[in-house]
Design a protein that fits this description.
α1 packs across α4. By secondary structure, this protein is an alpha/beta fold. About 40% of the residues lie in helices and about 15% in strands. β11 and β12 form a beta hairpin. The strands form two sheets. Strands 3-4-2-1-5-7-8-6 form an eight-stranded mixed beta sheet, with helices on both faces.
Length: about 425
């Protein structure tokens, strides 16, 4: 990996500043959040990536972004990109005029532009020793449980390998019914899917203002927004750009999605060279604080779901779960009820004490097949390589000791 330059040092200094136990509201809050984050999603819109006059990629600017991403990776954080631009790049190649495109034209432009977009990211990241991966999603991929879990697992694997996932909406197959309509909200959903703790929207404005600053000289920018209420939402009306489909209103919708799911969000100016370095050095921005931590938000959601079945565990597994471990096949003694992978299940001991709740890593049939087996025996039982965990620790909620109860947890079948 390339060594850090003088500019790269600003990102490292931001990490040191982020070590403070609390950040007071103010201009430094966004910089500190960038330095604190462990998993970052950066959203790049068409207006930044593609020159509006020529329709060509702003390659030198993208090289600067790649250098910023490399610097953040070098200090140990994981990084993802949600990028627009495929339609904007493809329409020039196909000779489409400016203005709205028919759905079929947009899909054709995306098919041509996605190749160029992926190649561009690969080329600018490679000098820093980083590998880019293209991930194409539709809204249904974030709504349908099995596809959501598959996408989450893929992103986790890519990040674990040090790869930079570059995510875009799969415009070649999207229709009016399933399109996100803008990549701001796609970025928010991807951030939650990946368990990110910070989402940075690189924009043509440097934050949220009381009014459109390009029209109202009295407009004032917010440094920090602790909670999005109707008065805050009203401030986003009418602020947008021509090149992309996302204005300030969609950014606020993205902020609501992200912050309620435990991911903080920043709106900052992206037009400058090295925009993340500029942010680390204190460039103006607006930070939307997360309402809860990503893990707590996820576990609150799991705890509130109605279990579709039960995983009965032995005493050793119950003790391991209390220490924050995953549930392995060896500790599983029985499976009750019918459920699919990703469905909510209760975890109980052989004595009937409710230990917690989880999202199942296997459907009920495969869970029964691997119950009691050591990891090396799973493939033989299933006929294919299985998952290491029956339920991953990130997808398990353990009740407080005082809340454990002898009565079996209710399921769909027992009501």
């Amino acid at each position: 990996m390339a060594s850090l330059s003088a500019d790269d040092g600003a990102l490292s200094r931001a990490a040191e500043q982020g070590a403070a136990s609390a950040v007071a509201p103010g201009a430094g809050a966004s910089s500190a959040a960038l330095g604190q984050c462990s998993r970052l999603v950066v959203k790049i819109g068409s207006a930044l990536l593609v020159d509006a006059a020529t329709g060509k990629l702003r390659r030198e600017w993208l090289k600067g972004v790649a250098a910023d991403l490399a610097a953040i990776r070098a200090r140990g954080a994981e990084v993802m990109v949600v990028s627009s631009g495929s339609i904007a790049l493809g329409r020039r190649v196909l000779g489409f005029r400016r203005g709205a495109l028919a759905l079929e034209q947009a899909q054709a432009a995306a098919a041509v532009g996605q190749i160029r977009l992926a190649q561009a990211y690969a080329e600018v990241l490679e000098p820093h020793g980083l590998t880019a991966a293209q991930v194409l999603l539709t809204l249904d991929d974030t709504r349908e449980r099995r596809r959501y879990l598959n996408g989450r697992a893929t992103l986790r694997q890519l990040l674990g390998l040090g790869v930079i996932p570059v995510v875009n909406e799969n415009d070649t197959v999207a229709t009016d019914e399933i399109k996100f309509g803008d990549n701001d909200r796609l970025a928010a959903r991807v951030a939650l899917m990946a368990g990110a703790d910070l989402l940075a929207l690189l924009s043509d404005v440097d934050g949220l203002y009381t009014a459109d600053p390009r029209r109202d000289p009295e407009a004032t920018r917010f440094d920090v927004v602790d909670r999005i209420n109707p008065s805050i939402e009203a401030m986003g009306a009418g602020v947008g750009s021509d090149a992309g489909s996302g204005g300030m209103r969609t950014k606020l919708l993205a902020a609501k999605t992200a912050t309620r799911g435990g991911c903080a969000m920043i709106i900052c100016k992206g037009e400058v060279d090295r925009p993340l370095t500029a942010l680390a050095e204190g460039a103006p921005a607006t930070l939307f604080r997360a309402e809860v931590s990503p893990l707590n938000a996820r576990k609150q959601w799991i705890a509130g779901m109605k279990p579709m079945g039960r995983l009965v565990v032995d005493a050793g597994a119950a003790r391991a779960l209390l220490r924050g471990k995953s549930l392995l096949p060896a500790g599983l003694r029985a499976v009750e009820g019918g459920f699919e992978r990703g469905d909510p299940v209760a975890i109980v001991t052989e004595a009937g004490v409710s230990v917690g709740a989880a999202l199942a890593g296997y459907g009920d049939a495969e869970a029964r097949a691997v119950a009691g087996l050591h990891s090396r025996e799973v493939e033989g039982a299933l006929g294919h390589p299985g998952r290491v965990e029956v339920a991953h620790s990130d997808n398990i909620v353990i009740w407080e000791a005082g809340a454990a109860r002898a009565a079996p947890a209710e399921t769909e079948e027992t009501e």
